[in-house]
Amino acid sequence: METLSSIKELLFILLLKLGTASAFAALLARWTVFRKVLFTEERDSDQKLKMMFFITPPLVIGVALRLSGFPYRFADLMLEGSFLLGLLGGRVVGPIGGAIISLPAFMNHEWLSMPVASAAGLLGGLIRQAIPNKEDIWNFGPFTFLNIPRATVRLLRQAVISWELLPLFSCVLLEIGRVALVRATKPTWLFAIGHSREWTLGLDVLTTLMAVAIPLKIWNNTRIEMNLERHQQLLLEARMDALSRQINPHFLFNTLNTVSALIRFDPDMARVVVLKLGNILRRLLRKHETFVPLREELQFIDDYLDIEVARFGQDNLEIVKEFGEDTLEAFVPSMLLQPIVENCLKHGLAPKLDGGKIQLRTAKRDGRLHIEIEDNGVGFSEEKISRPDGGGIGLSNVRERLQVLYGTDFQLIISSRSGKGALIHIDIPEVVTAMEEARK
Fold this sequence. Notes:
There is one protein chain. This protein is α+β, with helices and mostly antiparallel strands. It has helices at about 5-30, 30-40, 45-70, 80-90, 95-100, 105, 115-130, 150-160, 165-185, 200-265, 265-285, 295-310, 340-350, 380-385, 395-405, 435-440; strands at about 290-295, 315-325, 330-335, 355-365, 370-375, 410-415, 420-430. A hairpin with a 3-residue loop joins strand 6 (about 410-415) and strand 7.
């Protein structure tokens, strides 16, 4: 007759076993390489080897711990781990991984441990091969057994198979088979926690099922998070590309108008402008980059301003540059300054009858990059600054791109007085380059 203390002990061991399975899965999910292997559903030989390399050592340690003494019986996940390897890696990885996991037990004269572990791995691999859509494997969870009535109805009425039930029934079969083997042979040939108690078979089966389903659920959550991150990155790239495309045609249209006007009265200057335009087009036609060094962005602005100086006249447009040397290698969003400078020229200086001036300043303070673009044009009215587009399409585009890249960790401040000019101040986090990091 079972005592209350022995029942409590058994339940405690089974709960510890589930805790061990959860900790094992959570630990592996923290490794970037393992996460990548999980994310790839169709795995090549190298990825399968990586999966085996990550999964088998903790399970081997668990078996060795169980062999070291009575209190560590909960650490043995040989059967569950072998089945998981087959389910995720296939019918080759499963048996090989199962044999490796069972080595400590087999060397301790548990002669059935290696055949049983390899058979569990092979069964998992055959199930993986049988399931048409491999994503259905990830639908197997700790409470999948609650779906049995609904799955039965779907099978009878619609002839639709719920493939996630196949691993469930296999776990039941594996645990019952293990307990039956222990009872039919010598208990020292194979290990099972509650093999001597008839009433514990249900608990053993449930624990085995959970010990397989919990790691799958944890790893599936990891896959979902990685998938969301990937889609968010693709969405960010698409959005940035759309914003860049919004700038480029508008800029090129204005530049070509400048070239067209120069050809009429100053062909030599037109040739110079065409060369500058060639530099700009090489930059625009280059592979899209989200971030570029500030030095490269300023070179782009130099070519653009050379064209605008030719358009306005040397005497009508003055450019003042005050760049901090320590800012030139900092990374900034590509095409950050051109829309702002164009906005200064088009809306600030073009309406003026006399000459105009643009000042460009950069500085680093407290680990942040500060950029200022100032003109002495007609300025913005308070009403225009307060509008949703924030001073025009160019500035609105820049603000939206900064928001996409930095969230709320940026500032774009417009200061202006009507008839006195405008000051655009940008404050963004400093991005340290690899060269600067090496110097430090």
